[in-house]
Amino acid sequence: MFPASDSSPAETGKAQPTATGDAAKIAAASGTAAAPSKGAARTKSGTTKAAKTGAKKTKAAATKTSSVDNRLPPGGVNMVTPSALAQTSYYKVGDYVTFGWNYTSLSVKPAKIDVYVSCAANSATYTISNNATFEPTGKVVWDTKPEASGTAPLLTETYTLVIHDASKDITAVPVAGHLDTYDQFFFGMYTPQPYTPLSGKTSPCYPRDHIHPDIPATDGWRCATCSGALSSTDLQALKFMLGMCIITVLSFTWFAGGFGALF
Question: For residue 183, which of 129, 136, 119, 108 has the smallest C-alpha distance?
Fold first, then answer.
């Protein structure tokens, strides 16, 4: 009466192993295929992250490079010691010379700077500071003694102070916000000349304290207020003038007294 009942278990028994085997095969195939897919996903994710990181670095570098507006002027120098508004300064060879300055329009600070002095007369360069660390306010002291300069002797001439970025050439093209070569401060140097006496005669001005200590006693110079400064001729002329004055006063007094003008 129930033919379907007798055949269902058999059919079910045959189908069950088949279904289980197929499931196992499908699962195995699915696992095998999934493994490469997971690795590929990780590789793809790593590549994407690296690409994003590289893009960020490139963007940051581009931002850092282009952070200075090209419309800005190049960086410059404003002299403080001596003042740029003062008249031309002159310094004696052998003295210490101090230079001080501030920076203007400087957006990118240089790491190192060079400071030196140039002279067009002898085409010489005198280094004051080489590869010095950058400071917001610059200051150098130049020893102008011949043994300190170590180069050509300093002449009585006009000199130029030069300040520039040590990492760049002095003739580099100015860049907005970067320190440009400064060579607009001029000053003079001079060498004192030895004293030349007016004559070879001994000065009659004594004692020695009455003349300048830097002037030798054999310069021929005379002191009008010193004892013995007047010659015999000068003394005679002075006595004559004084005698004439006395005679004139006495004569006028006698003449006026004769007419009763004084009474």
Answer: 119
Distance of CA 213 to the CA centre of its chain: 41
pLDDT, tens digit, 9 for 90 and up, residues 120-142: 999 999 999 999 999 999 999 99
Give the residue among 190, 194, 193 at the shortest CA–CA distance from 89: 190
Q: How confident is the model at residue 67 (pLDDT cuts 50, 70, 90)?
A: confident
pTM, two decimal places: 0.54
3-state SS track over the chain: CCHHHHHHHHHHHHHHHHHHHHHHHHHHHHHHHHHHHHHHHHHHHHHHHHHHHHHHHHHHHHHHHCCCCCCCCCEEEEEEECCCCCCCCEEECCCEEEEEEEEECCCECCCEEEEEEEECCCCEEEEEEEEEECCCEEEEEEECCHHHHCCCCCCCCEEEEEEEECCCCCCCCCCCCEECCEEEEEEEEECCCCCCCCCCCCCCCCCHHHCCCCCCCCCCCCCCCCCCCCCHHHHHHHHHHHHHHHHHHHHHHHHHHHCCCCC
Which amino acid appears at position 144 of this protein?
A: T
Interstrand relation of 182-190 and 90-92 (parallel, antiparallel or unpaired): parallel
- Cα–Cα distance measured from residue 263 to residue 257, given in angstroms and rounded to the nearest whole number: 8
**Amino acid letter, residue 157:** E
Average pLDDT over all residues of the chain:
74
Through-space distance between the first and last CA atoms of the chain, rounded to whole angstroms: 195
Share of the chain above pLDDT 70, in %: 58
Q: Are 163 and 180 in contact (CB under 8 A)?
A: no
